[in-house]
Write a structure and sequence with these properties.
The complex is a heterodimer of chains A (211) and B (169). Chain A is 43% helix and 19% strand. Chain A has 211 residues and is of the alpha/beta class. In chain A, strands 1, 2, 3, 4, 5, 6, 7 and 8 form an eight-stranded mixed sheet that branches. In chain A, β3 and β4 form a beta hairpin. Chain B is α+β, with helices and mostly antiparallel strands and 169 residues long. In chain B, the strands form three sheets. In chain B, strands 10-9-8-7-11 form a five-stranded antiparallel sheet. A four-stranded antiparallel sheet of chain B has the order 2-3-1-6. Chain B has a two-stranded antiparallel sheet with strand order 4-5. Chain B starts with 11 loop residues before the first strand and ends with a strand. Classes of the chains: A alpha/beta (211), B alpha+beta (169). Chains A and B meet through α1, α5 and α7 of A and α2, β6 and β10 of B.
Chain lengths: 211, 169
């Protein structure tokens, strides 16, 4: 089973180069990394996939990014409920990210059903549980627990990422399982979430029959 | 007089954690403060008292931490949230848990020592440590202070860097 860390930020944004992060990822049990604005490659036996995150909250920007970044794993920063529903139905979008920074009603049962139908993964940045303290961390944990409840009912895919900008922010698979346990995620669910991205890639690359 | 007779004492477990980066200057007291703060922040003071964590000893880049039996997973989870010690970014990776310190000591691997090197990148001098496995920790000093950059030997070409050992050999 593939184990993927989604959306890491190497040098120059972070303090570690992509090769060093790949080396650390291999030591920690990962075999694939989705890296922001970095070409696809393979270092030290770890596959590097090019990723991109669209932060503009308009559908025009999302469509433009999908056209421009063809071949990348595109994540879109979540916004209002209607925007999220439109994003999920846009072909080429693989992930919806940053849901814990939106309002509670931004991701409801209808959006969850759409995400399950279109196989768009919801990105959970586990690094927030490490970086945040106090009220902010409580908010993230509450939000992730709510998302987990929706995920168990509607079975949309989750994608997990450390959001690391340094090798010191990267966490091993075992540590990620422990951290996900903080909001009630079981070990099997975590391992399934780690394997989401290759499955999405496989589905998007396979030919579709148009009747 | 001892506070509790041996039969009434709590059972303990010991957790072996690996310190990254290896070259950090922090003593056992710094680690104790960082770990206690992480546990209290994540679980609150009541659970922190239940876990009863304590830093036993530091051996090179490894740390042995004590806790009450049955609370190892909570301690390991809290260890993953430790971000700084002695005002330096760190990562504590829990490696193993045991009922005896002796068993944990067997799992401590020898330290990979590195050579001190000086790098020239874009005309500027940077000091760093070059490890035998190809990793390089580069220390960048400027007006704002000190910053560590983690790279590998292969990256040095892309930085157009040249390295020399600190003794000039």
């Amino acid at each position: 089973m593939t184990v993927t860390d989604v959306f890491i930020h190497p040098h120059p944004r972070g303090d570690s180069t992509i090769r060093r992060m790949a080396l650390t990822a291999r030591e920690y049990g990962f075999d694939t990394l989705v890296v922001i604005d970095n070409p696809s490659a393979e270092y030290h036996g770890v596959s590097i996939l090019k990723g991109a995150v669209v932060h503009e909250g308009t559908m025009k920007a999302v469509n433009a990014a999908v056209r421009k970044q063809r071949g990348s794993i595109i994540g879109v920063a979540a916004g209002e409920s209607s925007f999220n529903r439109s994003v999920i139905q846009t072909p080429g979008v693989a992930l919806l990210t940053g849901i814990c920074q939106t309002r509670r009603n931004a991701f409801d049962h209808v959006t969850a059903r759409f995400a399950a139908e279109k196989k768009v993964a919801i990105h959970l940045e586990i690094g927030l549980l490490i970086a945040c303290r106090g009220h902010t961390r409580q908010k993230v944990l509450t939000r992730y627990r709510e998302l987990l409840t929706l995920q168990r009912k509607y079975e949309f895919p989750f994608a997990l990422g450390s959001g690391a900008e340094s090798i010191l922010d990267q966490r091993s698979v075992r540590e990620m399982i422990l951290l996900c346990g903080l909001f009630g995620m079981e070990k099997e669910e975590v391992l399934t979430a780690f394997a989401t991205i290759p499955e999405i890639l496989l589905e998007s690359s396979s030919p579709r029959v148009v009747s | 007089m001892k506070p509790l007779p041996p039969t009434l004492r709590e059972n303990r477990r010991y957790v072996l954690a690996r310190i990254r980066p290896a070259a950090i200057l922090a003593d056992e007291r710094d680690w104790h403060i960082a770990i206690s703060e992480a546990i209290s922040s994540l679980y609150g003071d009541i659970t922190a008292a239940e876990i009863h964590a304590g830093t036993i000893r530091q051996e090179g880049q490894y740390l042995i931490i004590r806790c009450r039996r049955g609370w190892e997973d909570k301690l390991c989870t809290a260890l993953t949230t430790v971000r700084t010690a002695h005002q330096t970014p760190v990562h504590l990776q829990a490696i193993s848990t045991s009922g005896t310190i002796k068993a944990l000591k067997k799992k401590i691997r020898p330290i990979i020592t590195g050579d001190e090197v000086t790098c020239v990148i874009n005309g500027g001098n940077h000091s760093g440590i070059h490890y035998a496995d190809g990793k390089i920790d580069l220390i960048r000093r400027d007006m704002k202070g000190q910053e560590v950059v983690f790279l590998t030997k292969d990256d040095m070409e892309s930085f157009h860097a040249t390295t020399t050992k600190s003794d000039g050999i």
